[in-house]
Amino acid sequence: MASIMKRGNTYSVRYNYKDHAGKPCKGWETFKTKAEAQERKITVEKELLDGTFLVPDAMTVEEMLYKWIPIQSSKHKWSPKTYTQSVAMVQNLIVPYIGKRKVQDLRTYDIEQFYATLSQTPCGQYVHGEKQELTENQKKRLLSSTSIHEVHTLLKTAFSYAVDWDLIHKSPTPREAPKVNTEERTIWDERTMLAALQTIENPALHLAVHLSMILSLREGEILGLQPGDLDFDAADGRGAITVNKAMQRANKEALSKIDPSQIYHTFPDRREGSKSSLILKKTKTKKSNRVLYMTKPLKEELLAWLDKMKQDEQNAPEKYCNCGQLFRLPDGLPIAPDVLTKWYRQWRAEHPEFEKIVFHGLRHSSATYQLLQSGGDFKSVQGNTGHATATVLMDTYAHTQDKPRLELTEKIEADFYTQDVAGAKPQEPPENKMPAATKITGKMILEAIRQMDAEERRELERQQKQIEKEESKFHDQISQLSQQMADSVDDEKTALLKARIEELQKQLAAVAEQKDKIVELQNGKAGNVYVISNIGSFGEGVFKIGMTRRLEPMDRVNELGSASVPFPFDVHSMIFSDDAVSLETKLHHILNDQRVNKVNLRKEFFRVSLDDLEKLVGEIAPTADFKRTVLAEQYRQSLSISHVAENPDASEEEDDEEDEV
């Protein structure tokens, strides 16, 4: 079935096989040694016998992908947007780097190296497959981890087809996808949403934002609505909206390639020679087809908007062109997504007082608000948002908010410690398991499980993400230099590369140490216990004793002083401890009788003399510094200004006395 032939200093394995069409072919592979040739001969004969022989094929990655795209888009009924994005990904992120490689020659290592190259590639390096000249600033903006993950997903699917086509036995894509460094999206709370809505003067933008905030609608779904989708009598007069279409601007080439059943209507071009068209299409998923219920203010605004459209048509009937959409320009033509986005960005530029979020961020904010209002009823909220599964909603849109967590703690406080256990027989502890002297009260437990301040947690998470980015950059640079060192044949260059790698490893160790510290602060008990006062706000003899896990503990003190009190706090002591929770609990327990608020134990204010507090800190933390001085600068300056304002004559007399001297 196979034979070995020696040709000069090499050995060739010759064999016969049939190609995909059944045509007889001859195979010829050359090796440097006879042992290698014999090993390959045995392998080929075995593969030919059991039918696992891989027919040689010169198909490149580029050819394979362009063969796969039409099949995949037709099979899964891609939208125009998905088709355009997939083709662009192949043209600009895959073909320029591995497009000419033979599919059968690719190994997992090659794909890993390809991902590493992409991680150092600037955005927009290729457009329509053509390499672009970038400025220095443009070169600094590298492809995101999300883009690289999307490339991996596309290749994984495409190579699975290559396996089905008997091009390869096994997909070369790595088992683990590239890591995505996701950051929690910025959202608005309900107060910010309402405040923002009240500042929008453009009636069309106001209605679109209102719909997104209340009903969690996507931009395309909002613009895809038609008057017939509104039923003001449904749900006993509450009113309902049927969502079953979406508006999108699509590339005309993509429209010619996809299943036409995905498109309901194509609007006439407003510009001759346009390469894109405005379309009405099916919604993103089957779950996106849904019925939503109106609030009373939203219902009133929709009715007013319909009246406005009638008035627009009556004002200029000869020029009015009714497009059939709910959202129309004064001439009756549809409001396109890019127009709505432009209006939203203009409003956002005029109102910098609101945290910057994209239009889609309104949907995120709405979904989060609905989850809070529903008590975490994911299925109900999923019905409103139109996500394919509740898991997608939970992972993507459920932003962390601290209000419900605090309310949960208050419920635990109210219910757990007030149980009637008088008639219950206490359970005997296992022998020798707990010392008899151990006494733990409910108040001590409550203090110990008090939640970390929400702002502290967010700040630590932000710092951790920033450090992880730095860590990733160091790893990538070390990996590249290690590869260069392995390929180098110049001893001097190798030595320089080695020195640079060692330097980067030292810097990486420092970054890792800082990251470990943050993780310790997040998950452990380490932190700083602070003793502060504010005589301008609370009077003398009142001190706040709290705990912070922040890397810069003064940030927490400054934050407390800038929140809802008129004057900043004075710091008397800042005590670092590897178990700050226990230290704070101990101080609170000793001073429990001197609490100012004896009902809400989260209010950490105590009425105690400065001498007693200094003595207590000295006993518990002998090495801690304690400052007796109460500066209260702004408070004392305010008193001085008030005194001068109330006694102007006294001020003049003091000036006269100074002049005489």
**Stretches where pLDDT falls below 50 for ≥5 residues?**
426-455, 650-661
The number of distinct helices, counting runs of at least 4 residues, comes to 26
Task: Tell me which oligomeric state these chains represent.
Answer: single chain
Strand content: 5-15%
Q: Which outline best applies?
A: flat
Cα-to-Cα separation, first versus last residue: 121 Å
User: What is the topology, as strand order, of the major beta sheet?
Assistant: 14-12-13-15
Secondary-structure map:
Elements: E1 2-7, E2 10-18, E3 24-31, H1 34-50, H2 61-75, H3 80-98, H4 108-119, E4 126-127, E5 130-131, H5 136-140, H6 145-164, H7 190-197, H8 203-215, H9 219-223, E6 230-231, H10 234-237, E7 240-243, E8 246-251, H11 252-257, E9 263-266, E10 276-281, E11 290-293, H12 296-315, H13 337-350, H14 360-373, H15 378-385, H16 390-396, H17 403-416, H18 442-448, H19 454-487, H20 491-523, E12 527-533, H21 535-538, E13 542-548, H22 553-561, E14 570-577, H23 580-590, E15 605-607, H24 610-620, H25 633-646, H26 648-660
Antiparallel strand pairs: 1-2, 2-3, 4-5, 6-7, 7-11, 8-10, 9-10, 12-13, 12-14, 13-15
